[in-house]
Design brief:
- The chain is α/β, with parallel strands linked by helices.
- The chain is globular.
- The longest helix is centred in the last third of the chain and has 51 residues, at 485-535.
- The chain contains 24 helices and nine strands.
Length: 536
């Protein structure tokens, strides 16, 4: 059964038509595929972008509105989900300039010369996605532009790729051969067109080809699903599966591992000239590590630097004697020219030193409980034994960053100064004074503060209890000020600790999700290989 949708005349008609598409699409899913409707938001009347750094393929659907390239937005989202890839779709938010009146804002997002701001916004999102994918996957992104031309001669699927003469015969073009092999199908009439140096047209496909010198190399694919007989609500899923498998096979790298090969020279062999290829690879890798925004980034970066530039020798790192000294110097210069998350020179040296400390104190569990800011401050101390005493003192006395700075300053001023005992003379004097004082009666506000502080201290580690209405109503400066300053500091430390725990848990969950998406992509590749063996 084929569906024909006219351009809705008002918002109510638009929502009814959208609901009809959703229901028709859902009816054509098997019970095992119903999860697609839960995993994908299908946010009609929006521009939707989803980035998955485990896969280098970005599906782009600039249309999707009624009367335009209908259903290409769904294909882009479903195909990206199938192969754990990325997508950028105009999900029925804007419609192309057509003479037919009706509901919807007009903008041609497939035309970079469109005079309105919407096309420029869409292209900015596209360029940003290209940069993220290139940085994360360390390879040229595959950009798949989806169109549907119902008035073209068909039904058939027309797949076009764009290459330049200078790149056509290089190894980078082997993906074209793989794509040509993977598109063979008994279900669809396929036309494969390879374009060299395409003339500029008012399309993103052509625009991106012309912009390669500005945005870096990309692999361009344009898929025209000619005629609605190919793309209807009944065929969205089958077309998406076919296209995602074809692109999954084509995007497989012949060399899967992105790790840099181990250094071959011995630790006594110092390089004569900087290795610029290594410099660029290290720069990309370090920027990737920093961009993750988690506390272990500095340690991970330090381990990486020691492995690559110090021949994985902790003692060389401790003595600050890199095997690849010239390359490390060039790396610092390279990173100073970058922007965004590129680390500074001092950050790199701190990362190496922190990695050394991590190795020294790997069996000293107290060190692992310190905050990263404490660990960085301790890098100023050269003596391993003195540093160990300080670590113990930080844990026992719960020294703040400010207090630790003062403590290190005292020790630098007097190198023979040993860590302070548990109670100094000042604390003893305060204790004597407090013992000779008679207890005073508490004010009403102080009683309230004592009761509230007890409640908060009991509930601070249990969010479901802490944020109940009876406690949450006291979360204002006037009421919290009734709590003694000492208890407020204690509460603040506990809140900060719990906040850090939750944030770390969220980061771990995100890493697990990314890992599983990567598995999904690998399963997809293996399925393609298995299917290819069955075709023979």
């Amino acid at each position: 059964m084929q569906h024909s949708y006219a351009i809705p005349k008002d918002k109510a008609s638009f929502e009814r038509a959208v609901q009809e598409i959703r229901e028709a699409f859902f009816q054509n899913l098997s019970s095992g595929e119903h999860g697609l409707m839960e995993n994908l938001p299908f946010p009609e009347s929006q521009i939707y972008r989803r980035i998955n750094a485990a896969c280098p393929v970005l599906w782009v659907a600039p249309h999707g509105y009624f009367g335009d390239a209908l259903h290409t937005d769904y294909v882009g989202m479903v195909a990206a989900e199938m192969m754990a890839g990325s997508c950028l779709v105009n999900n029925k938010k804007f419609r192309c300039p057509l003479p037919e009146p009706g509901y919807g804002e007009i903008a041609n997002l497939n035309d970079p010369d469109d005079s309105g701001p919407h096309a420029h916004t869409f292209i900015k999102k596209l360029f940003s996605a290209i940069s993220i994918i290139r940085l994360k996957t360390n390879q040229s992104p595959y950009l798949v532009f989806l169109l549907n031309l119902p008035k073209a001669s068909g039904p058939k699927i027309e797949i076009s790729v764009a290459t330049s003469d200078e790149n056509h015969d290089k190894d980078d073009s082997t993906w074209i051969s793989r794509l040509r092999q993977s598109i063979a199908s008994d279900d669809f009439d396929i036309s494969f067109i390879e374009k060299r140096l395409p003339q500029y047209e008012r399309t993103l496909f052509s625009h991106l080809f012309q912009k390669q010198t500005d945005i870096g190399p990309v692999r361009l694919i344009q898929i025209c699903l000619n005629c609605n007989e190919i793309l209807s609500t009944e065929t969205i899923l089958s077309v998406s599966i076919y296209l995602s498998r074809a692109l999954s096979y084509a995007s497989q790298q012949e060399v899967i591992s992105k790790n840099i090969a181990p250094l071959e020279q011995t630790s006594d062999l110092i390089e004569q000239e900087p290795d610029m290829r290594l410099v660029e690879q290290a720069g990309i890798k370090l920027t990737e590590i920093i961009s993750r925004h988690y506390e272990n980034a500095m340690i991970e970066a330090g381990n990486y630097l020691i492995q690559i530039f110090f021949d994985n020798d902790i003692e060389r790192a401790r003595k600050k004697k890199p095997v690849k000294e010239k390359s490390l110097y060039q790396l610092i210069l390279y990173l100073q020219q970058q922007h965004n998350h590129a680390p500074s020179k001092s950050w790199l040296y701190n990362a190496v030193n922190l990695s050394v400390d991590q190795s020294d104190f790997k069996t000293f569990h107290t060190y692992g409980k310190l905050l990263l800011s404490h660990k960085v401050l301790l890098l100023q101390i050269d003596s391993k034994e003195l540093k160990k005493n300080l670590i113990q003192e930080i844990a026992e006395k719960k020294l703040t960053i400010s207090e630790l700075k003062d403590r290190i300053y005292q020790m630098k001023k007097d190198p023979h100064l040993v860590p302070l005992p548990e109670e100094d003379h000042t604390s003893k004097r305060k204790k004597m004074i407090s013992e000779n004082k008679f207890p005073r009666l508490l004010k009403k506000s102080e009683k309230t503060g004592v009761i509230l502080s007890k409640k908060l201290l009991q509930a601070v580690d249990q969010p479901d209890q802490l944020f109940k209405t009876d406690i949450r109503q006291h979360f204002n400066q006037q009421t919290l000020a009734d709590i003694s300053s000492g208890k407020r500091r204690q509460l603040l430390r506990k809140l900060q600790k719990k906040h850090t725990e939750i944030r770390s848990g969220i980061k771990q969950l995100k890493m697990t999700i990314q890992e599983h998406e990567n598995y999904l992509h690998q399963y997809q590749n293996l399925m393609v290989e298995m299917e290819n063996t069955l075709k023979k």
